[in-house]
Write a structure and sequence with these properties.
Strand content: 15-25%
CATH class of one domain: Alpha Beta
Structural class: alpha/beta
CATH topology of one domain: D-Maltodextrin-Binding Protein, domain 2
Largest sheet: 9 strands, mixed
Order of helices and strands: HHEHEHEHEEHEHEHEEEHEHH
Number of helices: 11
CATH architecture of one domain: 3-Layer(aba) Sandwich
Length: 304
């Protein structure tokens, strides 16, 4: 009886050894593909600069959408900075719109945009709405005439008299005997508000006969097409189609605005409802940093 049990145990032991061997082979087969699959994507991601940049943007939260609206003076530089920001962070979309400074203030106050833009100082009432301003650049306001205009310069006082209607003929300024056609921006324009503050003063208004335009571009086109016209325009829109007049003997150039000799200079602002956070804060910091200010310096007055 004992001998029979011994012969039965031998096959059983052999079977158990076979099971353990097969289990070991299964474990090795499973672990090999897992190690290979993990290593391959890591190696690929590291070797591709584009994928690395995208991964970094995602890791730091730089993805999502930003909307900005307001000043048409700020609009061109905002579009250029937004393009550079989106190139750096491909998962971000920044939409830039115009409308004027009044639209920028109203939209950011109501929360319909992330960032408003204004080309004038905020009023105390606007600040009371919780709007925070961020100076991103400075800009000169040029007094422009038709490219063929004989008059080369005016005093600031003469500019005030022209736009108020006290001076009505170019002959009063040494030019031809032609009626002056005053062209101005519409109410709500930041450029108009800054011009009124720095040139017209509190007690003098722009003449009711002025031709009103809704944007810097439209005003420039009007003056460029009228030999007897005069208007005021952001430095950022100046080109050979119009003539920038000297003011108090100082040429209207970025260099003169930056060194403080040109007398009509105002800030360009981004506006937020409260202190900016997250992606909006990153975008504004980019505007204020070296990359953003290098873009500003192409047509406006940088902060550094």
């Amino acid at each position: 009886m004992i001998k029979k049990s011994k012969w039965f145990a031998l096959p059983l032991a052999a079977l158990l050894v076979l099971v353990f061997v097969l289990a070991g082979c299964t474990t090795n087969a499973t672990s090999t593909p897992t190690t290979t699959a993990t290593a391959t994507p890591a190696s690929t991601a590291t070797s591709s600069p584009t994928k690395t940049a995208t991964a970094k943007a995602t890791a730091t939260g730089l993805s999502g959408n930003i909307t900005e609206a307001g000043s048409t003076t700020v609009q061109p530089v905002a579009e250029s900075i937004a393009a550079a920001f989106m190139a750096k962070y491909p998962e971000v979309k920044v939409v830039i719109q115009g409308g004027g400074s009044g639209v920028g203030v109203k939209s950011v106050a109501e929360g319909t945009v992330d960032i408003g833009a204004a080309s004038r100082e905020l009023t105390n009432d606007e600040k009371a709405l919780g709007i925070v301003d961020h100076v991103i650049a400075r800009d000169g306001i040029a007094i422009i005439a038709h490219s063929s205009q004989m008059v080369n310069g005016l005093t600031k006082s003469q500019v005030k008299d022209i736009f108020s209607g006290a001076i009505t003929n170019w002959s009063q300024l040494g030019g031809a005997n032609k009626t002056i056609h005053v062209v101005a921006r519409e109410e709500g324009s930041g450029t108009r508000a800054a011009f009124e503050e720095m040139v017209m003063g509190k007690d003098t208004v722009i003449t009711a006969t002025a031709i009103l335009q809704s944007s810097n571009g439209a005003l420039k086109t009007t003056v460029a097409g009228d030999p007897d016209a005069i208007g005021f325009l952001s430095f950022g829109y100046l080109d050979s189609s119009v003539k920038a007049l000297d003011i108090d003997g100082i040429a209207g150039t970025v260099a003169n605005a930056k060194n403080g000799t040109y007398p009509i200079v105002r800030p360009l602002l981004f506006l937020t409802k409260g202190e900016p956070e997250g992606l909006v804060k990153e975008f504004i910091n980019f505007c204020l940093g070296p990359e953003g200010q290098a873009i500003v310096a192409k047509d406006y007055i940088s902060l550094n």
